[in-house]
Write the structure tokens for this entry.
Amino acid sequence: MTPDQIRQVYDTGPEAVVALVTRLLDTATRQSEQIALLTARVQALESQLAKDSHNSGKPPSSDGLTKPAPKSLRQKSGRRPGGQPGHPGATLGWAETPDRVIEHRPERCASCGEPLTPAATVSVERRQVHDLPPLRLLVTEHQAHTCVCPACRQPTEALFPLGVDAPVQYGAQVQALGVYLTCYQLLPFARSARLLHDLLGVCLGPGTLSAVQRRCSDHLGPVTEQIKAALTCASLAHFDETGARIGGRLHWLRVLLGSCRVHAADDLLRRSCQARAGGDGRHRHPAALRRQGGPRRVGLLPELSLCPRAVQRAPPARIDLFGRRRRPLVGAGDEAPAAGHQGGC
């Protein structure tokens, strides 16, 4: 309203002023209620966006590409860094039978210049250097002979060993080293090929390393199937996951654990095992159990496969089996309960 309109209402009389103020108060009340609702909704959305696997019961697979930096839960022990008293250590030991001995003798006297012979030696000081031998490939030539029988005059050819298929090829040890670098040390194919070339002079390209890795996987097929079958029939299984960036995208490697077997696969194997197993498929956190429909056997803690590391990483308010928030479970410096699971995440 403009000032002139307000004066007109004032000149009309007290009843008009009361009606105007009442309408304004009603409008202000409705606006205050709407502002409170919108503020609460914004706070709820901000709290939901701020949650991740470190401050809530959400699984690590929900973190996406914006995974927070890891925070250590270790407390200061008050001890100095480095080896502690009683630590066995790993000091380089003295070799009693060295592979090579190099003798250094003075040729002339440092005082008068007189020539010195080996018979003039009165003492020997020893020092040892542990180093790698020259790295080079060992070339083995296989020769398959063809012999003619002196009786029937028919030729007989010798067979090459299994795996010797090409005129020139790399051996099993070189291929095993390539698989070790790419699968266990997690080096990219290009860097593994560069390392093999720099150290051994091996010219294996990234494509060849990938083919070697596939052949190794095919050889391990029967073992993998046995592990899958054993885990599928297990009465209790534990699932976990870890993120890995491949080609700029986030992929999740899921691990299925039994009493004595481990298998890494994608989400398809996890769902199939949960559907086929006669027992339970337990996740590392109770909130995840609630999202999966809850365990088939609801009992006390010995029936629940809880990961103590996940419990330690939980926020100050814990979440019970059904996702309800409870009082703090562990305090600073307290040990997380084992609860039927002795391993870490």
